[in-house]
Queue: 3 jobs
Job 1
Amino acid sequence: MRGRTPWGEANSSSINSVTVLIHDGYMLFETRCAGCDTPGQAICTTCRFALIGRAPQPQAHGVIAAMPFAGRARDVVLSLKYRNRRQVARHLGSLLVNRLVESGDHVDLDVVTWAPTSVRRRRQRGFDQAEEIARTVGRQLGVPTRRLLTRPGSATAQTGKSRSERLDGPEFVARPGLQGRRVLVVDDVVTTGATLLGARDALEQQGAHEVILAAVASTPAAVGAKVLPFRHAARAVAA
Ligand SMILES: [Zn+2]
């Protein structure tokens, strides 16, 4: 017979947004907030309020962004990117829709798409965070969401490239037949804008009439060109 777990002893491990508590032989699932780790919802009420209404400074790349990539917003976006908080994408997508409606760029869109992450990253996470956000945006705007962009050779992307080549962003290839279309491209974080501008080039090469670029969060101009993984982020802020 299997040994009984004594009362009061619990093992816990964090998997995605759910903490698994093992207590007395039973598994209990506990959702925690992506922003502050409080047990309860995927994003708690306090963090929801913290994400509202903070438009980032306009940047030279011209990408529309819902919020600055800082503070609580940064924690939430990084949890989606590096800790698989997939449920968070829907909430972030809604905030981006609000910003697009404010800017007036939501009208007359023919299709919504996203700047795909590399095949390797997608495999690691099990989903593409930009696609998750784009699908929410498309659904809420009532515009079809389609995969229009691929990253050729992305299974080996970024390896064997120089730093300057990586900073130029990935090269995309767009699906043909976009003549006259007004396309919205969505990403999670915009830093230099190289990724989204590369996406726009590819779509325009296939005839897209107008390409709107949007991201959930925008890094302040002074932060530089790199989005740090979650566990490094706190130290970077302190530095
Ligand atoms: Zn919270």
Job 2
Amino acid sequence: MSDTATLSAPEAPVQAPAAKAVRNDWSREEIAALFDLPFTELVFRAAEVHRTHHRAGEVQLCTLLSIKTGGCPEDCGYCSQSVKADSGVEATKLMEVQAVLQSAAQARDAGSKRFCMGAAWRNPKARDMPAIIEMVKGVRQMGMETCMTLGMLDEAQAAQLAEAGLDYYNHNIDTSPERYGEVITTRSFADRLKTLDNVRGAGINVCSGGIVGMGETRADRVGFVHALATLEHHPESVPVNALVPIKGTVLGDMLADTPLAKIDDIEFVRTVAVARITMPLSMVRLSAGRESMSEATQALCFMAGANSIFTGDKLLTAANAGDDADAAMFARLGLKPMEGEEPLRAMKAVGGCSGGCAA
Ligand code: SF4
């Protein structure tokens, strides 16, 4: 056959999940057994799940802007924005609303469908909320989805953001419950879950994932996926980050000169694949660490079920693959930017999925 058009991948329809396709009763043993599968078998199974529920040739483009950088009182061991880190990151004030909207317009013009805004806070203060609300409303008026990550939220703040029309709230669980206290001491794993409850209770979509490559064990990665996959409602979005070790941070200094500094690519892809299998309807987001991954590793991640990336040169304070590099990679891999609704949200819009769905 010489006509290459006839060889292009057919657009498989996204199917409603079969009964029990979405489970939140995963045991740690089951998740560990998935991690232990031969690599090609694991990726094959993840790809099957992915193709059943998602358009496998499409990847959603999101842009992340730091609207308030540095000076954060929390002590997350991976973060250059903590006051405890000696990373040279300067603390800034909250950006003006108009400047944020200008950045959002640029992101939209570059093809982003979602604009994520991050502030280095333990939690937003009452005085910050009016500007935050203006940002959410303004970005939504541009036709983009909105996501914010502002630290801990109480019920009233979550309700205010829901009222403004916020689509997603990001609040990562970071790592396994057991490892949490070794990475962060200024808040607890239970604090994290409380904010996720407040966000969910307000009707905002949940974005929650974590970071691998922080020197954790395979058992911690199992515990991390288990904590997310056994939530009563799976997060609509699950970012999987590879640690970018930054000099001056606790983990950056500890890991920079050790073989653990960069997670093994195969183990990273395994984590993506297990997240895809255990949370079949969620968007699995390739986040920090992508700029140091080969295209081949990223291609394996897309094969294993990752279907969203952050675009632009920066992810908060860390370097990211730039728009040009991503466009070239998409062309080489034959991927398209995602258009339209995510499968999970589309299913919710028509009254929920057909059986056993935790969403
Ligand atoms: S990760 Fe967020 S909460 Fe933790 S120190 Fe950095 S900005 Fe603060």
Job 3
Amino acid sequence: VLDIGAAYGETCLEALRRGATDYTANDIEPRHLKILARRVAEDLPSKLPNLKLISGGIPHPKFNDFIPTSSLDAVLLDSILHFLDPVQVTEALHQIFSWLKPGGKVFALMGTINLAVFKSEVRESLERDVKTFVETVKTQGQIDPKDIPGFTSNVSEDFDFSICPKETLEAQFNFSDGRFFRFHLETAKYLFETAGFIIEEIVYTPINTFPYKLNGRERVAVFAKKP
Ligand SMILES: C[S@@+](CC[C@H](N)C(=O)[O-])C[C@H]1O[C@@H](n2cnc3c(N)ncnc32)[C@H](O)[C@@H]1O
């Protein structure tokens, strides 16, 4: 299993506890991986031989030196793809596809435009852009990844500061440098399918906490497999 953006290892520790024997944790922040490794060393020392660490941001051509083609059973992308732009998501999904064994699975969870922190007009405008995107894909079959709607490199200009103070919101998003890709069920479906995956399930899931809770569609979850 490869856990991309594993952070402090919540999922990793649980997987090792439940018997995972070959778990690779990746993160762009080496200090997150240090914390993860320390937690495993302290809480589950006998499981250390079952853990590998890969530091760096996906997509990354060098990762192919450490992760052989068709070697993985599963890849986890929990709350990480929305920090990439659609060109990077396309590259990342192509890499992941190549690393999975046939029948291997990917599980992904991404933020959407339906977070209460965004201005309603931004949400409405993106809904319109996604409609146009769906029509274009229907007529043209494919679209240049950079034209897939939803990405911003300055997320703070789309925040509704009447919901939550500016400093609180910017502090929560500052580690991504203001970059945020607001996914939509349609754009997520397109990105996974064009990378070659078969989607087994794709659903909106809620975030029920302040300041994000809006309408039950705050995140989109994708369960897909390599044929
Ligand atoms: C919101 S946290 C999610 C943590 C964990 N997956 C979870 O769901 O609890 C995002 C993590 O992804 C990492 N990250 C951000 N961009 C990344 C990239 N391009 N490649 C790998 N990790 C990345 C961050 O350093 C952070 O630890």
